[in-house]
Amino acid sequence: MIAILGAGKMGEALISGLLRAGRAPIGIIAVARRPQRSAELHERYGVQVAGAAAAAKSADTLVLTVKPQDMTALLDEIAPSVPAGRLIISVAAGITTSFIERRLPGELPVVRVMSNTPVLVDEAMSVISAGSHATDEHLRFTEELLRPVGKVIRIPESQQDAATALSGSGPAYVYFLVEAMVDAGILLGMPRQTALEMVTQAVYGAATMLRDSGEHPVILREAVTSPGGTTISAVRELERHGVRAAFLAAIEAARDRGRELGRE
Question: Which domain, by its residues, includes 84?
Answer without folding.
Answer: 2-160
